[in-house]
Specification:
Layout lengths: L1 H17 L1 H20 L13 H9 L4 H30 L4 H16 L8 H14 L4 H25 L6 H28 L3 H29 L12 H30 L3 H6 L1 H20 L6 H10 L11 H14 L8 H20 L5
Length: about 375
């Protein structure tokens, strides 16, 4: 179990590193840092010997989206201004005869405290760091160092934002759609694994692996939709094609509701298999076959269904599903509900059969709730 979990997280880490958006950000950061380094000596009010602060300014302003980059850049500059002022105050204390160790302690204490203000955001750490730099690195030229440090860092921030804008900041709507598709596939796989285990046994390992994939995929969807929302803010590309985030958010909410039921079903099936009762459940064909059918059709609904279908149409398909050409038109939603009805009316499922009966009933209830969450899918 732990080994499977570690492998899943390792795969996710590799995907996060080598995905196209991250590599594009790395390339833009490299170009911006090189430009800032090359042009820094030409910046007025700054000494060329402090040019190395320009690439640093680029780094603090380069985020996946333009809005995040602009916000972080402005907050960092604000933190630098406060830190430089704090550092100059520390220099003044030393000039008045205060011991250096006292000045350092005061600059750090005040910088950390002031940095706690929400106003500074991503620049909160720079309040104390800039104060220390000015206090310890100015070498008696605090005015020259402070202006060079602040101006050069600010120049790097501006270069970073310019490159982000010119290089067309990305939109992450399509990435969120990919995550939703992977989430659907993971949920479908979990229902199929449970169906196989309940009727045939021997699938506890596959169920546990499916559970991990479901959790990882769910986290990726939530992060992806959040990233898509941030990427649209202050993005010049939005006017050329806004992603359907509201619909994605609705679908993600439905899938989250299904995830809860899928995990319940998976846990019941795994426990049933570990106790050796799956074979007993599977032997009761009258109850097990419709229940397996409900699980498999729910999986197919997740794989091929689309949200927004009329529920009435799905019910109509169910009514036509028992005869001739109508059977070909039956939707996964209707087929799954039909299987649940057959299970509920089967003679075996209505008998009090102890633990096995309880497992079947609990699974059927969870499948029904999953279908309710996908009520407008067909």
């Amino acid at each position: 179990m732990q080994g499977t979990n570690a492998r899943a997280h390792a795969r996710q880490t590799v995907q996060e590193i080598v995905n196209r958006s991250r590599l594009a950000l790395a390339a833009k950061s490299a170009v911006a840092a090189a430009i800032a380094w090359y042009l820094a000596p030409l910046v007025p009010f700054a000494e060329s010997e402090y040019s190395y602060y320009a690439p640093l300014g680029v780094l603090v302003s380069m985020y996946p989206t333009f809005f995040e980059s602009a916000r972080s850049g402005m907050q960092t500059v604000l933190g630098l201004i406060a830190g430089v002022a704090l550092g100059l105050g520390g220099v003044g204390l030393v000039a008045l005869g205060s011991p250096g160790i006292v000045a350092v302690a005061l600059v750090v204490a005040v910088g950390v405290a002031v940095g706690g203000a929400q106003l500074f955001g991503a620049g909160r750490d720079w309040v104390s760091m800039a104060g220390l730099f000015v206090l310890l690195l100015s070498r008696g030229e605090s005015g020259e160092f402070s202006s060079s440090y602040l101006v050069t860092m600010g120049f790097g921030v501006v270069v970073g934002l310019a490159v982000q804008w010119i290089a067309v900041p990305p939109l992450y709507g399509k990435t969120a759609q990919v995550h939703v598709a992977e989430y659907r596939a993971a949920l479908a796989a979990a229902f199929r694994a449970a169906a196989s285990t309940i009727t045939e046994g021997g699938g506890e390992q596959s169920i546990r692996e499916a559970e991990i994939r479901v959790r990882v995929a769910g986290d990726a969807v939530r992060q992806g939709i959040d990233a898509a929302a941030r990427s649209e803010r202050a993005n010049p590309r939005v006017r050329f094609g806004r992603a359907g985030r509201s619909q994605l958010g609705t679908v993600a909410g439905q899938l989250d509701a299904v995830q809860l039921q899928a995990l319940v079903v998976s846990d019941l099936a795994a426990r049933c298999d570990s106790r050796g009762t799956a074979a007993a459940v599977g032997a009761r064909e009258e109850g097990a076959v419709p229940l397996r059918g409900a699980l498999v059709w729910t999986a197919r609904l997740l794989e091929t269904g689309e949200p927004g279908g009329a529920r009435a149409g799905a019910q109509g398909s169910a009514e036509r599903g028992s005869s001739g050409a109508g059977a070909a038109a039956v939707s996964p939603q209707a087929a799954a509900r039909s299987a649940l009805r057959r299970y509920a009316t089967s003679k075996e499922s209505c008998q009090p059969l102890g633990a096995d009966h309880a497992v079947e009933v609990a699974v059927a209830v969870s499948v029904g709730r999953a279908l309710d969450a996908l009520a407008d899918w067909r």
